[in-house]
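ARCHIVE CARD
Drawer: 12
Card no.: 0347
Subject: one protein chain, sequence and derived structure
Cross-reference: see card 0346
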Amino acid sequence: MLAISTKTKSAFGAGEWTGTATNRERPAPGAPYWQPRVALLLAAAAIGVTEAKARDFRVNMIPNGNTFRCANCHLSPGGGGPRTPFGQAVNARVTPGGAQPFWDAVLAGMDSDGDGATNGEELGDPEGDGVATPGVQVFNPGSAASTPPPPPPVEIDAAAMPVFGAAGALNWDGGKGPFLVWMQPSLGSAEWMPVLSTADRTAHVPLVGNHGFFRVEDAVGRTVIPLTVWLSAAAAGEAIDSPGRGYGLLALEGDTLTYHIPFAGLVDGATAAHIHGPADSATSAGVLQPLEGAVGVAGALTGTAVITAATREPLLAGRTYVNIHTPTHPGGEIRGQVAPVEWQAALSGASQIEPIPTSGTGTATFQLLGNQLFWSMTWTDLSAGATAAHIHGPADASQSAGVLVPLPGVSGASGSASGTATLTLAQLLPFIDGRTYVNIHTPTHPGGEIRGQVEPAP
């Protein structure tokens, strides 16, 4: 267990970040990587033993197969006889005596011997593309006694934790993905809230209030989708005069929605809060889900709810909003559109209003946390060096519009760039509504050579 603390500043004031790293306990020397799973799978293997002749030609069809040769697939090092769990998996994919290829991403992703490492990881080809990593140490995918050492513990790098407005970049080393990032809503809280799942060792995370306390768990099989919300009186309507504000995170795992949304500055004590929808930022709709914690002029909406498919679909599409109601403003004093954190755009000449004949293509990815937008873009084979790139809007895919957000650093016929921007409400709402597009301009096509509509990532 590792705990790291460092001082930072957020949009709501100075605070403290604490990173807590967790990793499963290392097994005793010589013990299998994940003992409970190995025991179950070995028991199954013992029941399912079958006789077979060794097929020496198949050794060369396995990445680094010559390291253990026939022992990859057979209990006998010389081949023939009962098969190992990996050998059983291979046998299920071939015909008797057949020489058809059997190694692929599916077989590479399996953990045949139940030792916690995939077949591809043990053989040095984790992607299953048939190209082994040079110089890698090879282990037998058919034997739990031959297994890679456990990865080093997860260590959060608090020294490399930049803060951007109301969000920050969390980085860590060690562990084995996929990872699950957790957040503690307050330092004194005993509860931890799931934030997101990722295969990467970095994630953009929210600062909630004046703090951010996080931990990272490795080797998880859970999928947690992060959502964000930024509330203000301006988003509730022009007639609302209130300094009220709010910012928080929602996390969706299956049909379970967890949320923590601090708010402050209301002119009157909150009486209720809900998720409303389906609706874009310019329309109103009925209640989809009540939210707990709407008490006082400042506080936090915190809780867990099981939602229906009728709520899940608009929630993931950016077509719901959080509304906090007060006696002074019973229709809602502050409001914020709920948005997915992850967005993307696929850029091409065909997506221009008047299609451009170009071989140029590009991709853009975005992470939205409150009103802080992180972006990363790659492009290739433009007709000339890019002169500019922007997010344009409001506009759907059949319309053109002016520049909303510049994307600096885009140059050259091929390349990549990344950055971050703090959005105004006039920029934020069309982005969430799906009414923005990315455009890369060149001297050949000054109005834009490749374009792509910004959409929630699948």
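Annotation on reverse: The helical segments are 35-47, 85-91, 105-109, 119-123, 233-236, 309-316, 425-432. The longest strand covers residues 2-10.
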